Amino acid sequence: MKKVIFTILFACITSFSIAQETQEVKTFPLPNVTIKTIDGKSFNTKDIDNDGKPIILCFFATWCKPCMVELKSIAEEYDDWQDETGVKIYIVSIDDTRSSAKVKPLVNGNSWDYEVLLDENQDFKRAMNVNDIPHTFVLNGNNEVVWQHASYAPGVEREYIEIVKKLIEVEK
Q1: Which residues lie below 8 Å from residue 129, measured CB to CB, with a gap of 6+?
Q2: Per-domain residue ranges for the chain?
Q3: pLDDT for 17-58, tens place per residue?
């Protein structure tokens, strides 16, 4: 009997935590934070743009294994996603000043075609209320956050593009 109760309790807790990882949110605009480009130039987050098309915004760190798996998985699909939807992906490293030097070689070594930003002081991370990485946001054509997902599970990247496709249908 204890095993049954434990199993049911575990299933309920697991279901609840998984349900909390992905969520539609009340839309909100990107905060106004100054961070850096991968080349070290100042960049204001209000300048994140895709000509009125959806954006996927991924927070990551070079030391985060699930982040690397997610970004590599997305990279395999990114060309098709762009052709199909016009989506643009921005990735935001939360590596500090000591480890941010690893970002550019990582991006170049993987031939990632993402827009890459550095949040060395984690100001943007805090402004976006990111607690765990990877943490991914989908923005509509007005640069408003409409959906977010924390953590990584194999195949979750398909959910990102489905949200983008829904946005495109709504915006037509």
Answers
A1: none
A2: 23-171
A3: 333 344 556 788 999 999 999 999 999 999 999 999 999 999
Tens of pLDDT, residues 86-109: 999 999 999 999 999 999 999 999
Ramachandran region, residue 20 (left: φ > 0; alpha: ψ -120 to 50; beta: rest): alpha
Within 25-152, where are the H helices? 65-85, 103-109, 123-127
Strands 115-118 and 34-37: antiparallel
Phi and psi, residue 56, nearest 5°: -110, 130
What is d(CA 160, CA 138) in angstroms, rounded to the nearest whole number? 7
CATH code linked to domain 23-171: 3.40.30.10
78, 55 Cβ separation under 8 angstroms: no
Q: What is the DSSP letter of 31?
A: P
Q: Residues in the chain, how many?
A: 172
Give the distance, in angstroms, between the CA of residue 79 and the centroid of all CA atoms in the same chain: 17
DSSP E strands: which ranges in the chain?
Answer: 22-29, 34-37, 42-44, 55-60, 88-93, 115-118, 135-139, 144-150
